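Quick one: co-fold with heme C.
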Amino acid sequence: MNRPAVHILALLALLHTACGDDGGGGDLDAPATDAAIDAATDAGTDGGFVQPTMLSETGLYSDISSETIAPGIVEYVPRWELFSDRAVKRRWVYLPPGTKIDTSDMDWWQFPVGTKFWKEFTRDGVRIETRLIQRIDASNDVSSWYFVSFQWDAEQFDAIAVPGGVVDDPGNNDIPDRSKCRQCHQPSRNRSVILGFGALQLDYVATSDGMDLERLVTEDRLTMNPASSNGGFFPMPEVGASDPTLPALGYLHTNCGGCHNEFSDVKNTVNVELRLTTAAGDRMSWSTTRPWAFVLGPNGTGVPAQLSGSGSHLVLPGDVGNSAVHARMNSITGTKMPPIGRETLDSSGLDAVRLWIESLP
Ligand code: HEC
Ligand code: HEC
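Sure, here it is.
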């Protein structure tokens, strides 16, 4: 046991945080207000929030050395996952006792102050990083959320906050700096901030002690309960077991819909929506789902791409080479989608989207 080494690391993290080094990384669409946002959270303007420097301070574990998860924290798996260069991931949620998720808009859940989510990344059986998102105040903007990742130390004793990110740590896993977290999670892109814990992501039957929509309803954690119907709460159009549509649209929902949706600032640049929605009218048939309508258009013949270089259409039935949605997934250069958080090709995601495009008349 070499605990003192961990504390030296903690000290370094404090110094690091004090410098306000939030990376930035020169990304094209990095929000302009990073410095202001960090100044606000640094100063603890919420009346007490202090940026944690070690994972063990965040409340995830009641005993980190035995990996005992604290009471009140529940592990869950979203129905469709984000591809993260093949890292194995685990996720946990903490909702403060007695609070509810505001589900008055079923597509855009609003989480109570004090909510915490963690996501752990493992490669080759070794924990690399654990990410934290915490709602720190009730104002409805990006400064009410705190994002940071913690990098696990070599002994796996604890993990240290790395607000400036880590490029190519062992295992070739880039840890995003805090501005990159916001590029995917900030409310101007995704009104809920949380991307994998919502009505459609939980509308399936989780394993015994996991979390799903049914359990949230049973435990009275939602302000408005969805009506259940045959085949889940929000059944998608009927398909045979081998139909490729749901796997493809579910993949796009998680991997792309956080930025490509009705209320995202990205829609000012490209008029694309790839996020599924709960409204019954949107689920009458596949052609009425928003992603389908946006990429295939009213006649199903395909919508021309606005930007050149990745195929003529967003989706061209039967032609993956001219379908920008597939071509941009099939890239690791400047045109790649998502633009951050992925360095390798997702062969199974590509297969899912290809099979769907090839199945289109
Ligand atoms: C490429 C976009 C992207 C980036 C960059 C990103 N995330 Fe996420 N994150 C997602 C998506 C999509 C999900 C939901 C799907 C999943 O969990 O597989 C998610 C899930 C999470 C979750 C679980 C709660 C939730 O929103 O579903 C946490 C915690 C999290 N991310 C933290 C972070 C932190 C902290 C950073 C920066 C260090 C970060 N993320 C960077 C896209 C991103
Ligand atoms: C972090 C936010 C983000 C995520 C996540 C994201 N995109 Fe994008 N996307 C953008 C931005 C910004 C642009 C416009 C600038 C550019 O082309 O790089 C764009 C442009 C596009 C375009 C060009 C549209 C046109 O009409 O020419 C396509 C196609 C696209 N994205 C597909 C996807 C797919 C498919 C995914 C998921 C696999 C995805 N995007 C995930 C931010 C994102």
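If it helps, Residues 1-33, 42-46 have pLDDT under 50 and may be disordered.
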